[in-house]
Amino acid sequence: MNYLLLAFGLLASGVNIALAHDEHDWRKDYMAYLSVQYELPMSYEKSGPARFATKRVDMNFFKEKLTTLSNTTDRRSTENLDVARQFLKEEYEKLGFEVRFEAFGGGANFVAEKKGTTEPQKVLILSSHIDSVRCKGANDNGTGTIGLLAVAQELAKNNYSYTVRVLGFDKEETGLVGSDAYVASIKTKSNIIGNINFEMMGVNSRKDGSFHVIDCQKESSVVISSAIKSSIATLGLPLTVVKACTDRSDHASFWRHNLPAVVISENFFGGDADPCYHAKCDIVDDRLDYKYMGNILEAVLDASESLLK
Ligand SMILES: [Zn+2]
């Protein structure tokens, strides 16, 4: 309850600041009021940047693509993983990303890239694992994979100094095999700015907006988690970061090579894990909270842009 009041307080104080600059623009005042009261995007803007960012990540697109990705019985068999990789290839090519598959012993990672304008050798890696455990994997890890696609849809619209590289890792569920092979194969590791790993993020059953940004307090990784926390505050998003530490996803492969990395996920370790985790009921249904996922993705999009310059 307290964090909700706090979030509202921050938003309200933001309104006061905005009004102090422009006291007589009543249409703007009213839109600001609506955006706070009803969480509507603030679409009226006289000049300059909006005090509250308009929501950018398209959650209708997200829902449509998540439903398509979750169509096969699982993403474990090579055949079904091929279907998923082909689907992602088409989606990223539509966005103008260059796509390739990188084979390793027993599997293939999906890679999509948008080159940086001034320092393309520097790379931010956004990743998710695309395999699932004997189920459709709508949440684990459909939400991470499609969340990343929805963020990429926005990143595709602008140019950045550094390169953004999307990784769809294979065989995460069988021991981080795909990410381990990929990170080991990176030739100049000093060019990697870091990794943001998207994990399951659909369940917010307590409706408290709590989620994880896990850096295990590793010094170089804190730079990334701080960027995400700063975006939450700047955008006034109703999210609370709950501390946890784990190496149970692909970000840990980056840590093993001393590269900065964080994993974002629903409040899995804080008592709000998905009851359908690794179970047949991990399908697209009402337990997935699109507003909550949208807020997480807004924060990660904004932080990614600050890291890509
Ligand atoms: Zn997972």
What can be said about this structure in brief?
By secondary structure, the chain is of the alpha/beta class.
Care to describe what's here?
By secondary structure, the protein is an alpha/beta fold. It has 2 domains: 1-53, no CATH class; 59-308, 3-Layer(aba) Sandwich (Aminopeptidase), CATH 3.40.630.10. The chain is 41% helix and 16% strand. The protein contains 9 helices and 8 strands. An 8-stranded mixed sheet has the order 1-2-4-3-5-8-6-7, with helices on both faces. α7 (219-235) links the parallel β6 and β7 (240-241). α5 (138-155) crosses α9 (290-308) and α7 packs across α9. Residues 1-52 have low confidence and may be disordered. Bound molecules: zinc ion. Residues 129, 140-141, 199-200, 249 line the site of zinc ion (ZN).
Offer a few descriptive terms.
41% helix, Aminopeptidase, alpha/beta, globular, binds zinc ion, disordered N terminus, 8-stranded mixed beta sheet, 309 residues
CATH topology of the largest domain: Aminopeptidase
Query: What structural class should be given to the helix and strand makeup?
Result: alpha/beta
Strand order, main sheet: write it out. Answer: 1-2-4-3-5-8-6-7
Which regions are unreliable across 5 or more consecutive residues at pLDDT < 50? 1-52
Distance between the termini: 36 Å
Helix content: 40-55%
Main sheet characteristics: 8 strands, mixed
Small molecules bound:
zinc ion
Shape verdict: globular
Number of helices: 9
CATH architecture of the largest domain: 3-Layer(aba) Sandwich
Mean pLDDT: 87
What's the CATH superfamily of the largest domain, by name?
Zn peptidases
Radius of gyration from the alpha-carbon trace, in angstroms: 19 Å
